[in-house]
Structure formats: C-alpha cells, structure tokens
Specification:
Length: 402
C-alpha cells in the first residue's frame, strides 16, 4: 500500500511539474529515481522492497514489454526504408563498438572475465530518449539529429536483448548453457510477435469486423495483451515478442498505430516511472558505497568514453556538422532497458551477478543525473534565437564554420 500511495503522490507531483520540467533541467524521471532512493530501506524505510520481491520482477517485465511494444511501433519498415542512413550507422557500427569498448573497460579495469564483460557491455549499450527529451522534442534541434536519436533509441533496446540473453547464458557456465532452449524461446517469441498482430489486422479488414472510433485506441492494447498472454503460456521470449509485435503493427496497420500511439505512450510512461521508483528503492548510500574505485572508474569510461568513441567512428563521412555529432555522441543515456536488463542479471544466479548489478546501477544513476540535466542546455545550443552569453555565441559561430 505504501508503494502505491507514494507512486500516486509522485505521479501527481510529476504532472504538476511537467511544464516546468520541459523548460528546465528538472526531470520527472530523476524525480521518481531520487524519491525511490530516499524512500527505500537505505534511507527512510517508507517503502521496503528487495530484488527477490515478486513485485520487482512483475513490474520490470510489464514495463519493458510495454516500452518495447511502443518502441517497435515507431520503427515500421516503411519508416526505416526512407530514413535509415544515420540510424543505421549508429546501430550497425555505433552500438557494437559501444558494447566492445564497455566490455574492454570491464575486463581490464574491473577484472571481469570476458563473458561477464560482454554481458555488461550488452546491458549498457541501449539508450533511452526519455532522459534527453528536451533534445528529441525540440524543433530548434535539426530534424535529422532528432530522428537519429529517436530511431536509434527505439530500436536498440530490442537489438540488445538477444546479446544480453546469450552472454548471460554463457556466463552461467557450461553446466547451465542451454543455447538450444534459448534459441527456441526467442523463435517462439518472434513468431508470436509477428503472427498475432498480422492475424488481428487481417480480421479487422473483414466486412464483419470493424473497430468503432471510441474503441480504436484499445485495438493496440488488445493485441499487446494477447501477445503477452501467449508468450507466457507458450514460454516465448516476452521482449522479442513485444518488439516484433510493435514493428508488425507499424508495418501492416498504420491507422491502428496512429490510433494507439498516444494511449500507448502514456501507458508505457506510467510503467516506466513505476519501475524507476522501484529501482531507486533498491539503491541506497550503502549500496553505492560498495562500488570500488575501479568500479567508478569503469562507470566514467562507460559514460564519457565508450559511446563518444563509437559514434565518432560511426559518423566519419556522414555529413554531420560538429554540433550535431557532439550532441549525438553525448546523448547516449543508460535508461530503462538497462535497468530491467540489470535486474535480470541480478536474479540470474550467476557468480558475478551482485558485482555486475552494482556496476550497472552505478552507471545508470550517473547517466540519468548527467543526461537528464544537460538535455535542455544542449537543446539551447541549437537555438540561435535564444539569449546566450557572448562566449557561447563565439563557440557556436566557430562550430558552425567547421
């Protein structure tokens, strides 16, 4: 009951502060994360949760399912074919390189074995546009940069998932390595994610079936719930099913996607905020104090070096100016998908699960605080009409010439 009451009060506060948050460095996501940190057992003890609590697992699964389903709807094949050049570079080159640099840091700085190093690299590779919302949603920012960040963050959660599952299976050791079962789980999830939406959309085109205007936004919700239920029943991978279902709806049902878009985004946002609150509860000053200095050095490399180096290499010859490339390199926030993947690692039972979760949590916390507080500042960098200091105008003229 305390969790529900705290979430309701925080949600009301987030709604009342949402307009201010769009104009300043204030972030509703940071509000929920910080509130969980303060309300958890490590501080005030108002909310008492442990990683083994069923609420944590259920909420994390539902939230990531909703996020991947709505993310998939943003990237139907028609959209990908028409504007794939820059996102393709970020996903095809940038994401694997980010994973590799992060894995190298984990191996040589923290001393993790290669399977665990690759696992933490896969967990921290996805990005989240929520923590750079002022940049993605600001019309002063060049459209190609906004499209790049939006498509990349919408796709990379689903792309990272198979790597997380495979590296997690390898980290479990040869006795527990069941790649055949894992492949079957992913395949079943893929078939459910494609088959259920395709059949539902085909049925709606029959003359006996048609959704009324009032119920049309619920069409996407109904499809998502059927995909979720079948994935549980047939032991398919929930997250692959969610992501492919979203892409299938976007590809074969553009009208249904448009009707569901706003409703689905709000639902996914509610679940994300609830999961961030729970994630904050699991972190405490003592928890963060358990991270060694080498762990914090790894966090710094993962945030300040891994993505910038990967994106710099990926966009060589892409035609982005210095401002656009710098913004793309910086805004790689470790967001909600990394939170859930980190919880999956924690509950996996592998030998280094606790150490990995500490490193993942430290990187996520630092990333959320840094990226969500600098998105407005960088967005103003692209606003030539805004009042800016003289030194800022000189830098902007210099980067414009370059």
């Amino acid at each position: 009951m305390s969790l529900l009451l705290c979430f309701a009060l925080l949600l009301l506060a987030a709604v009342l502060l949402s307009s201010l948050a769009h104009r300043t460095i204030l972030s509703t996501a940071v509000l929920f994360l910080a509130a969980g940190f303060v309300l958890g057992d490590g501080m005030t003890g108002v909310i008492s949760l442990t990683p083994d609590d069923p609420t944590v697992k259920l909420l994390a699964e539902l939230a990531l399912f909703a996020v991947l389903f709505t993310d998939g709807m943003k990237v139907g094949w028609p959209q990908l074919r028409t504007a794939w050049r820059l996102p393709g570079r970020a996903l095809g080159w940038g994401m694997p390189l980010t994973l590799a640099v992060t894995a190298l840091a984990a191996h040589f700085i923290v001393g993790l074995d290669w399977p665990e190093s690759l696992l933490i690299g896969a967990v921290l590779a996805p990005t989240d546009p929520v923590f750079a919302s002022a940049l993605v949603g600001n019309e002063k920012v060049p459209p190609r940069l906004r499209h790049l960040l939006n498509v990349e963050s919408g796709v990379n959660d689903g792309i990272a998932l198979p790597f997380v599952m495979v590296f997690l299976a390898v980290s479990a050791g040869s006795d527990d390595l069941h790649l055949g079962a894992l492949a079957l789980e992913l395949l079943v999830g893929l078939l459910i994610g494609v088959g259920v939406p395709w059949l539902a959309l085909r049925l709606e085109r029959l003359r006996f079936f048609a959704a009324s205007t009032q119920y049309e936004p619920l069409n996407g919700l109904a499809i998502g719930m059927v995909v979720l239920a079948l994935s549980y029943a047939l032991h398919g991978n929930l997250f692959i099913a969610a992501f492919t279902a979203g892409i299938t709806v976007a590809t074969f049902g553009p009208r249904q996607r448009q009707a569901f878009e706003h409703f689905g985004e709000l639902g996914a946002e509610l679940l994300k905020l609830a999961a961030l609150l729970v994630f904050g509860v699991l972190i405490s000053p003592a928890f963060l104090g358990e991270i060694s200095w080498t762990g914090w050095l790894f966090v710094a490399v993962a945030i300040f070096l891994a993505r910038p180096v990967a994106l710099w290499f990926s966009f060589l010859g892409a035609g982005l100016n210095l401002r656009e490339q710098a913004a793309a390199m910086w805004f790689g926030p470790k967001g909600f998908a990394s939170v859930v993947y980190g919880l999956i690692v924690l509950k996996s039972g592998i030998a280094e699960a606790d150490l990995l979760f500490h490193l993942i949590a430290g990187a996520i916390v630092v990333s959320i605080l840094l990226h969500s507080s600098t998105d407005v500042v960088v967005a103003r960098w692209f606003d030539d009409s805004a009042e800016t200091p003289a030194w800022h105008r000189r830098v902007r003229r210099l980067t414009g010439r370059r």
